[in-house]
What does this fold into?
Amino acid sequence: MNSEEIGFIMMHDNNGDFYSAELHICSQYRNKGFGSKAIKTAREFGAAWGFEDIRIRAMKSSPAYNLYLRSGFTMEKELPFTYQLVSKTHNKFRQATR
It folds into this structure.
């Protein structure tokens, strides 16, 4: 098994909101599905930890913005230099118990 590090995603609880603080994939591995896999994994962790939504900010000039849209995020708020995006974690248990 190859254990080469190709990127990372940092998640945190921001006053009850599950946020992606940063997603980085090394340039030679971009556009190969690793960003989508990182987002899928973050959703799984968020659901396991009881969060219903996941939020992320993207620079307006960032090509990652399109990755987030393709991954099911929608714009929640436009800020001067970034977009704040939101998507469901797919936490079926929490949604079913509301």
User: Anything to note?
Assistant: The chain has three helices and five strands. Confidence is low (pLDDT under 50) at residues 93-98.
